[in-house]
């Protein structure tokens, strides 16, 4: 999820001082740094960055610079809202994602599918999602896309990042869900009603594109 940065720098610094970044790892090949309390989480954060880079290259996006990925331990103010897995704060250029074990616990009662975290690969896909928001935000200059398009591309990046076998399993509950038929159907209203349905319909629409890179260039207002 992308939302405008509303946190003061004081909150950002206080968060780092209260155990959110017990471990810190600069990801190789870019300026992104992952902070978290668990070493495996932090390493997985950089694995997600590597995966996102592959998608960005194929879609015409550039890896965002100097982003801090903060792996937090609770869905509470000022970090994440209730039921929110992650968010990108454009003013702080920071991503906050629920750490792996808290994410598993927070979603264990959800219905099977994209909303129930049971593996690290699935969890990493949420980091891909938020990195895509950061990439879109930093890549748009004169005109930025709507929130619905933001969420469309982030959803596609997230689902594409999943191992094929796991992606197939996660999409089984949505087997009867059709892709978006036209651009006008990709709306913030649909996203608000059911983000997981929105994500699956976006991915299936993407699968049908003859030239995904051209589509992204058009809807994201990217330079040729």
Outline the structure in words.
- This protein has one domain (2-219): Neutral Protease, domain 2.
- 49% of the residues lie in helices and 11% in strands.
- It contains nine helices and six strands.
- The two termini are 27 Å apart.
CATH architecture field:
Orthogonal Bundle
Radius of gyration, CA atoms, in whole angstroms: 16 Å
Q: What fraction strand?
A: 5-15%
Shape call: globular
Number of E-type strands? 6
Query: Strand order, biggest sheet?
Result: 1-5-6-4-3-2
Class by alpha and beta content:
alpha/beta
Low-confidence stretches: 4-21
In the residues, how many domains can be counted? 1
How much helical structure, as a percent, in the residues? 40-55%
Terminal-residue CA separation: 27 Å
What is the CATH class?
Mainly Alpha
Give the ordered list of helices and strands.
EHEEHEEEHHHHHHH
**CATH T-level topology:** Neutral Protease, domain 2
Report the total helices: 9
Largest sheet at a glance? 6 strands, mixed
In short:
This protein is α/β, with parallel strands linked by helices and 224 residues long. It is built from 9 helices and 6 strands.
Blueprint of the fold:
Layout (H helix, E strand, L loop, with lengths): L1 E2 L5 H12 L2 E4 L6 E4 L2 H21 L8 E5 L13 E4 L4 E5 L1 H8 L12 H20 L7 H14 L3 H8 L16 H6 L1 H13 L4 H8 L5
Helix pairs in contact: 2-4, 4-5, 5-8
Write a concise keyword list for the protein shown above.
224 residues, 49% helix, Neutral Protease, domain 2, 11% strand, globular, 6-stranded mixed β-sheet, 9 helices, alpha/beta
């Amino acid at each position: 999820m992308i939302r405008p940065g509303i946190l003061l720098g004081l909150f950002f610094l206080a968060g780092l001082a209260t155990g959110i970044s017990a471990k810190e790892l600069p990801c190789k090949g870019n300026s992104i740094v992952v902070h978290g309390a668990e070493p495996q989480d932090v390493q997985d954060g950089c694995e997600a960055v590597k995966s996102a880079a592959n998608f960005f290259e194929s879609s015409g996006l550039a890896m965002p610079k100097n982003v801090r990925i903060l792996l937090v331990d609770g869905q509470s103010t000022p970090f994440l809202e209730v039921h929110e897995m992650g968010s990108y704060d454009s003013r702080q250029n920071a991503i906050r994602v629920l750490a792996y074990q808290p994410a598993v616990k927070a979603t264990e009662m959800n219905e099977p599918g994209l909303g129930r975290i049971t593996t690290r690969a699935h969890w990493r896909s949420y980091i891909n999602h938020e990195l895509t928001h950061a990439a879109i935000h930093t890549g748009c200059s004169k005109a930025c896309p709507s929130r619905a398009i933001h969420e469309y591309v982030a959803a596609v990046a997230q689902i594409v990042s999943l191992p094929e076998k796991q992606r197939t399993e996660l999409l089984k509950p949505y087997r009867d869900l059709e892709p978006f038929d036209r651009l006008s159907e990709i709306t913030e209203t649909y996203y608000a009603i059911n983000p997981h349905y929105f994500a699956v319909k976006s991915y299936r629409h993407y699968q049908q594109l003859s030239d995904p890179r051209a589509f992204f260039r058009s809807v994201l207002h990217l330079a040729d």
